[in-house]
Design goal:
The complex is a heterodimer of chains A (96) and B (490). By secondary structure, chain A is mainly α. Chain A has a domain at 5-42: Histone, subunit A, CATH 1.10.20. Helices cover 35% and strands 6% of the residues of chain A. Chain A has three helices and two strands. In chain A, helix 1 packs across helix 2. Chain B is 40% helix and 20% strand. In chain B, the strands form four sheets. In chain B, strands 1, 6, 7, 10, 11, 12, 13, 14 and 15 form a nine-stranded mixed beta sheet that branches. A three-stranded antiparallel beta sheet of chain B has the order 5-4-16, with no helix packed on it. Chain B has 490 residues and is α+β, with helices and mostly antiparallel strands. Chain B is elongated. Chain B is built from 15 helices and 17 strands. Chain B folds into three domains: 5-299, no CATH class; 309-422, no CATH class; 430-488, Orthogonal Bundle (Arc Repressor Mutant, subunit A). Chain B has helices at 55-67, 169-186, 228-249, 297-305, 311-322, 326-334, 337-350, 353-370, 382-393, 399-412, 416-422, 430-443, 445-452, 460-469, 475-488, and strands spanning 5-16, 53-54, 75-76, 79-82, 92-95, 103-109, 119-130, 134-137, 145-149, 156-162, 198-210, 213-216, 220-225, 259-264, 269-272, 285-286, 293-294. Classes of the chains: A mainly alpha (96), B alpha+beta (490). Strand 1 (62-63) of chain A pairs parallel with strand 2 of chain B. The complex binds zinc ion (ZN). Zinc ion (ZN) binds next to loops of chain B.
Chain lengths: 96, 490
């Protein structure tokens, strides 16, 4: 499988990355090499290997349902590019 | 309409699980707090923060899935569903994709009014995911901005996906009613629709009986259904709309994709919703921040055996134990567990299940509705009501007088004996009653003759006269005694 320029355009749209022509060329080439590298795994026989959902052999990590501290509102809103006294402000959501 | 068609409905129900803290952090899930005061680095998606699964949320999900007769796979995991939306701060929702915590269950629905036969609605899956935040419209400023409150972000939701097994708006409503009732009995959610604790999306299309076989219209997902009434109305509207569109365009499920429409209740119509851009490509992958959950069979059985008695089982038990109709058992169970317990106490103490059921489903419910009060606020205890029912069952007091007594008991918060003496109601001595009847029979030869001629209903006139002589005279007793007297007469 080789990555096409159209694949990279789609992925950049989904990731909200605006790439110029030159960047698209670079990315197509670089991402193609990454995918190609991973594809080497296809040469291995995995018939007797169980699928894994996680890189660690851990499971069932839970926390008790007890209240902890939340952030003060000022701190929560601190990084927002736009805000008012209570809320984050974003450009109007279409279709609502 | 030239062609007949069937309505095909599947429902997706999102129910908020009743935990104190969120699914992956320990922020409060409490509704209605000041905006953005219940958030932390985990639920607003700060880099480097780590989610940890709420044990109670998983347990409540498991309990619900088992009550819905689902298979519980031993292994389950969580995935990231990626999309951009302002109320989703991480840019992905933690949900479940290919290995949900439960699947292949069913919920039996039946209609006490018998408009459809009892049937099982398949449950395709029920999975545990996090909620998004809320977009608020800035009416005050009238600006083009949307305000975002992230208090709800990360609240645990169980998404319950039914199979497209419902065939009418009525079936959809009954399914939702029964599902909600089960969730309430299980105590897993408050199911408050106004606060968004229970949300419904409907997938709907119609199968038209065409000249050369069945034709399926494109599937429509209807959103913005804020009450069960809205669901019914929206489905009825969609069926008609899809038929008209098919007649006009000939579009079928084979050549037209699924669409999303929103219900506008004021207008009584569904309107196309703008699709989230590229929404079909969520690029799910396992969330590396969360580890899988393994549920041993023994644990599933432990939860199963600890389940409370569910509405369907309670209904059939009430019918068997107290000899009441399925209609009455449905009314009682719909009122919730405290009401069931109240009914059972009245039934046991009065010794007459049928009469107890009549009193609680008619008189008691009437008071609760008229006064807009809950059972907890109802002034009479179950033993007090049982006492009155017992008097009626034993023929000590006839039904219209008993209702006066009941109203007095409720109004003045006193028991049957006190109400009866206040109303001047006393049981009429049997010899006095006999004397009244003898006098009436002697004074009304015309009526006696009519009765002897086979016109039994002529006796009715005597009942009124008896009531005038003594308002406490039990009409049934008067009827019985008079008929006996007349029968003995030559
Ligand atoms: Zn949080």
């Amino acid at each position: 499988m080789s990555l096409t320029r159209a694949d990279v355009e789609k992925v950049s749209l989904l990731g909200r990355l605006r790439l110029g022509d030159a960047e698209l060329d670079t990315m197509t080439e670089q991402m193609g090499r990454i995918v190609g590298y991973i594809e080497q795994l296809g040469e291995l026989s995995t018939d007797n290997v169980q699928p894994m959902a996680h890189a660690q052999e851990m499971h069932n990590v839970f926390a008790d349902d007890a209240l902890g501290a939340s952030l003060p509102r000022d701190a929560a809103l601190a990084n927002a590019p736009k805000k008012d006294a209570e809320c984050y402000r974003v450009p109007a959501v279409l279709g609502e | 309409m030239p062609h007949s068609y069937d309505l095909i409905v599947g429902l997706e129900v999102h129910v908020q699980l009743q935990t104190k803290s969120k699914l992956f952090c320990r922020c409060s899930t409490k509704f209605g707090g000041p905006p953005n005061t219940q958030t932390c680095p985990v639920c607003i998606g700060m880099p480097g923060s780590l989610p940890v699964m709420n044990r109670e949320a998983f347990r409540l999900g498991l309990k619900t899935a088992i009550a819905l007769n689902c298979e519980i796979p031993q292994f389950t995991k969580w995935d990231r569903k990626q999309y951009y939306y302002p109320d989703l701060p991480k840019g992905y929702q933690i949900s479940q994709y290919d290995l949900p915590m439960s699947q292949n269950g069913w919920l039996e629905i039946s209609d006490p009014k018998k408009e459809f036969a009892a049937k099982r609605i398949g449950i395709i899956r029920a999975h545990l995911e996090e909620d998004a935040g809320k977009s608020l419209h800035d009416e005050e400023h009238g600006k083009a901005d949307t305000r975002i409150d992230l208090n709800r972000t990360g609240t645990p939701l169980l998404e319950i996906v039914s199979a497209p097994d419902m065939r009418s708006t009525k079936e959809a409503r009954v399914y939702l009613t029964q599902l909600r009732l089960m969730l309430l009995y299980l105590g897993v959610s408050d199911c408050n629709m106004q606060e968004g604790s229970l949300r419904v999306d409907a997938n709907v299309n119609i199968h038209i009986q065409g000249p050369s076989g069945k034709i399926a219209t494109p599937i429509v997902e209807v959103k913005n259904l804020n009450s069960f009434r809205h669901v019914e109305r929206a489905l009825a509207y969609e069926a008609k709309r899809q038929y008209d569109v098919w007649e006009e365009t000939g579009r079928t499920i084979k050549d037209y994709p699924k669409q999303t429409r929103g219900w506008d209740d004021a207008a009584g119509t569904t309107l196309p919703q703008r699709e989230k851009e590229e929404s079909a490509d969520y690029r799910y992958f396992p969330d590396p921040d969360l580890v899988p959950v393994i549920t041993p069979k023994a644990e599933v059985e432990e939860v199963r055996s600890g389940l409370v008695e569910l509405p369907a089982a309670i209904r059939s038990r009430l019918e068997k134990t107290y000899g009441i109709s399925d209609y009455d058992s449905d009314v009682i169970v719909l009122q919730g567990l405290p009401f069931v317990a109240y009914f059972e106490e009245v039934a046991k103490l009065s010794g007459d299940g049928k009469k107890a059921s009549n009193w609680v489903t008619q008189e008691l419910l009437r008071i609760l509705n008229d006064q807009s009060i809950t059972l907890e606020q109802f002034p009479l205890t179950a033993p007090q009501l049982a006492n009155l029912v017992k008097l009626v069952a034993g023929g000590e007091i006839e039904i219209t007088r008993a209702k006066e007594v009941f109203n007095d008991m409720v109004a003045n918060r006193r028991d049957a004996a006190a109400a009866m003496s206040a109303l001047g109601i006393a049981k009429v001595d049997s010899s006095e009653l006999e004397n009244i009847c003898k006098e009436l029979v002697a004074a009304n030869p015309k009526i006696v003759a009519d009765v002897k001629a086979g016109k039994q209903q002529a006796i009715g006139a005597l009942l009124g006269q008896a009531k005038k002589r003594n308002p406490n005279a039990n009409p049934n007793e008067v009827r019985r005694i008079c008929l006996e007297l007349i029968a003995k007469m030559p």
